[in-house]
Amino acid sequence: MGKGKWGLLVVPLVLTACSMHSELSADSEVFKGVDKSAAEEVVNEPGVKQQYESNSDEKIRNQIVQARAYDYQSCRAAYDVLKKWVETGEPGTLTSLTKPEMVTEGFTAINEENKKRIELAAAKDMEGFTSSLVGEMKCGREIPVTPGDYSGEKIEAAVAKLTKR
């Protein structure tokens, strides 16, 4: 009789503990070391918070939101470099990304893209630099020019106007 009573009590506790996820906020562990405004933008982006909280794989959840925060930072910074380049004939300065406390594959992928852009700017390869922002699977397709303007002009469209592509 004792086993049955505890068995009924333990099963719901285990199931409840396994189905709980931490709520996503700009102060979440995955965002420590990430630009606060980028973290806030990710948290406020329609659908992202729900996607994060409904995914059962913590590793994937963290990769998605951390990559998105770094996409906001790196893509906008690269767009600013390109604008300066078109206006002055010289590329602006693109800097390395700040490493977060919790490094995910999301950060690693965005960081590699950023490093390639730094090399392209140093080599004064405007065509390669521009191509790194536009097209399938490039950040410019989804990242808005204006922070928080999720339905506004995307970087890819702004690059097309800027470079007359």
What this model shows, in words?
This protein is mainly alpha-helical and 165 residues long. The protein has helices at 2-19, 36-44, 48-54, 58-88, 105-122, 126-131, 155-163. The protein has 7 helices and no strands. Mean pLDDT is 87; it is low at 1-20.
- The total of helices stands at 7
User: Which spans have pLDDT < 50 for at least 5 consecutive residues?
Assistant: 1-20
Structure summary, number of beta strands: 0
Range of helix content: 55-70%
> Which class do the helix and strand fractions yield?
mainly alpha
Largest sheet data: none
> How would the global form be characterised?
globular
| Quaternary organisation of the protein chains | single chain
How do the SSEs run, as a string of H and E?
HHHHHHH
> How far do the termini sit from each other?
76 Å
What is the overall pLDDT average?
A: 87
Please state roughly what percent of the residues sit in beta strands, choosing from under 5%, 5-15%, 15-25%, 25-35%, 35-45% or over 45%. under 5%
Instruction: Give the C-alpha Rg.
Output: 20 Å
Brief write-up:
This protein has 165 residues and is mainly α. It has helices spanning 2-19, 36-44, 48-54, 58-88, 105-122, 126-131, 155-163. α3 (48-54) packs antiparallel against α4 (58-88) and α4 packs parallel to α5 (105-122).
Question: Topology, pairings included?
Answer:
Elements lengths: L1 H18 L16 H9 L3 H7 L3 H31 L16 H18 L3 H6 L23 H9 L2
Helix pairs in contact: 2-4, 3-4, 4-5, 4-7
